[in-house]
Amino acid sequence: MQKTVLALCLSFTMLTACSKPNENNPPPDHNVTASLDDSASATVMDTPDTANALDWVGTYQGVLPCHDCSGIDTELELTLDHHFVLKQKFLGKSNNNYVNEVKGSFQFLNGSDQLIQLDSSGDSRIYYIGAQFMEMRGDKGQVLDQPEFNFKLTKSLE
Questions:
Q1: What's the pLDDT tens digit per position in 52-110?
Q2: Among residues 34, 59, 29, which one has the least CA distance to residue 46?
Q3: How far apart are the C-alpha atoms of 80 and 154, rounded to whole Å?
Q4: Which domains does the chain have, with CATH numbers?
Q5: Which of 5, 9, 37, 117 has the fewest CB neighbours in a 10 Å radius?
């Protein structure tokens, strides 16, 4: 992405440097705006937590390990405004149809665009965001050293 932007900037610079100035045309508007659809637009910002926003925004699903049930069917949705919706269903329990749903906010850790921490409503859990997946981590962001368990949630294609 950065290489493409750099190439476009260099091409633009070369084209404008070689052209004759035209006094009839107003100066160009250098504000970059990306159109999302007919009803919305967003200004492109280059900050650590929004630079790869299209990579992490979305819904992640999977079954996480559980010490007293057969697994936790988990759905975690992350939104661009740093909010989340976490839905969990404890498999193999007598109340198998009950879905626990919590909403809250999250933050990126230490300027990273790959480690997030949910607020206290999400038990302050930490997740690593990868390509089309997220993985639950330990309380300091470390990989959980339990290879027999799957801590990954897969990003849903919407």
A1: 555 899 999 999 999 899 999 999 999 999 999 999 999 988 877 889 999 999 999 98
A2: 34
A3: 18
A4: 2-43 (no CATH), 53-155 (2.40.128.640)
A5: 37
Tell me which amino acid residue 87 is.
K
Q: The tokens 């508007």 sit on which residue?
A: 29
Q: What is the token pair recorded at 45?
A: 């910002």
The burial of 116, by beta-carbon neighbours within 10 Å (0-12 exposed, 13-18 middle, 19 or more buried), is given as buried
The per-residue DSSP string of 135-156 comes to EEE-TTSPPPS-TTS--EEEEP
Q: Are 106 and 122 in contact (CB under 8 A)?
A: yes
Strand partners of residue 85: 77, 103
3-state secondary structure 70-100: CEEEEEEEECCCCEEEEEEEEECCCCCCCCE
Quote the pTM value.
Answer: 0.65
Q: For residue 23, how far is the Cα from the chain centroid?
A: 45
Within 21-70, strands assigned E span 33-37, 40-43, 58-64
